[in-house]
Amino acid sequence: MPKDRAFDHPVSSEITPRQVVLDRRQLMRGAAALAAVTALPLRAQPARPGKLAPLPAAKTLLAGAQTMDKPTPYADATSYNNFYEFGTDKADPARAAGTLKTRPWTVVVEGEVRKPGTWDIEALLKLSAMEERVYRLRCVEGWSMVIPWVGYSLAELVKRVEPTGNAKFVQFVTLADRAQMPGLRSAVLDWPYVEGLRLDEALHPLTMLAFGMYGEVLPNQNGAPLRLVVPWKYGFKSGKSIVRIRFLERQPQTSWEAAAPSEYGFYSNVNPQVDHPRWSQASERRIGEDGLFAKKRPTLMFNGYEAQVGQLYAGMDLKRFF
Ligand SMILES: Nc1nc2c(c(=O)[nH]1)N[C@H]1C(S)=C(S)[C@@H](COP(=O)(O)O)O[C@H]1N2
Ligand SMILES: [Mo]
Fold first, then answer.
1. How far apart (Å, rounded) are the C-alpha atoms in residues 248 and 246?
2. What stretches of 52-118 show up as alpha helix (H) in DSSP?
3. Does residue 39 sit in the same domain as residue 68?
4. The domain containing residue 137 runs over which residues?
5. 292 and 266 part of one domain
6. Domain count along the chain
7. Best substitution site from 92, 236, 243 to test ligand 1's pocket, by max atoms within 8 Å of Cβ?
8. Ligand 1 pocket, residues with Cβ under 6 angstroms
9. Residue 320 domain flag
10. Which one of 17, 134, 140, 241 is CB 3.0 to 4.6 Å from 175, fit for a cystine?
11. pLDDT score, position 60
12. Does 160 lie in the same domain as 18?
C-alpha cells in the first residue's frame, strides 16, 4: 500500500466488527466510571532535572486524572517539604534527609491477606509498568503543588496479596529510625507516622504507589524509596518512606488523628466547604507560582478529582466524616 496516502483508511481486515465495538464501548463506559487506566499521549514534561537516577515511565495516565496545570518547579517541590521525621521546618527535610538509607529496603505486607510477606524494593519496582501521572497535592496547611509522579496504582499490589473478606481498611506504617531521622527526638507526632485508607479507597486506581517524580527516583525528602500519593486527600494521607502495609478489619487510628482529633479526621478529603477549626480551606496558594501576596486560587472539591472519587462517599455526611 502506498505510504503517501492522505490519511489512513483502514483496510477491511482491520475494520472491527460492530458487536466487538459495542462490547468495547460497554467496557470503556465501565472503565470510565472506575477511572481505569487508559493510554493517553503524555504532553511534554519539563526536562529531567538530572539530579538522581532516571525512572522512566510508560506513557500512560489515568483517564481524566491528569491536571492541565503546569508542574511545580523541581527546585520548589524538593525544598519545601513536610517530613516531620527530619524536622518540622519546610527546609529541614531537604537539608537533613540525606542520611536516609534507601537500600536495602523492604515492605512487610501483613494482616487480613491470603498472601502476607516481605517485598523487596527491587521486586516492587518490577511489579507493574511505571506510569507518569501529574497530580495536584494539596496540603492541609493551605498550599498546593503539581507533581509528575512515577509509579503505579496501589491496587496492583493489593490484588496480588489477596485481601480476605475481613479486610476493610489498610494501614501504612512509615520508617521510624532514630539513627537516621533527627526529627524523632521531638514528640510532635507519635512515631512511627501511620496513615490509613478504607479498602475501596486503597483499591481506587487513582491511589498511587510512587517511586519517582519528574522522571527520576524520589528524592529522600519526598519519601524515597516509595510513598503513597492519594490525590483527592490532604497531603498528610500520602505517607512517605513506607515499610509496612497492614490489612485490618477495623479503622486504624492515624498519627494526625492521635495528635489532634478535632482537627484531623480519618477521611481528610480535600473539601473547600469543611474548614479546619483554625482556618478556612476554601482556597490555596500554589508553591513556586503564587507569591505570598498573590490572590489565592479556589480549592476544588476532592482536589479536582470529584468525578473520579465522589461515588466512594455517596450518602456520607462529609462534615461528620471529615
Ligand atoms: N512519613 C511521613 N510522611 C508524610 C509526612 C510526614 O511528616 N512524614 N508529611 C505529610 C504531609 S503533611 C504532606 S503535605 C506531604 C508532603 O509531601 P511533599 O513534601 O513530597 O510535597 O507528605 C506527607 N507524608
Ligand atoms: Mo501537609
1. 6
2. 74-77, 92-96
3. no
4. 58-313
5. yes
6. 2
7. 236
8. 81-85, 137, 139, 145, 174, 193, 222-223, 235-236, 238-241
9. no
10. 241
11. 72
12. no
